[in-house]
Amino acid sequence: MNPAWLLRAKRWAQNPPSPGRVKLVLAVIAVCLVLFGIELIWGWPEFLTPESRRGPIR
């Protein structure tokens, strides 16, 4: 582990993030997990898949 990361962890422990920041990060993680779950269950929509303008790869 790099000593810079230890210093960063020390500063973070002394000055933890505000409850609002923690809620924001958890909300972003929850949205990402929901989108991943939807994609896993129903798959990726065909109309959102980009098409190559160069043609098929040979």
Automatic annotation (TrEMBL):
Keywords: Membrane, Transmembrane, Transmembrane helix. The chain crosses the membrane at residues 21-44. It comes from the Bacteria. The keyword Transmembrane applies. This is Uncharacterized protein. It comes from Tranquillimonas rosea.
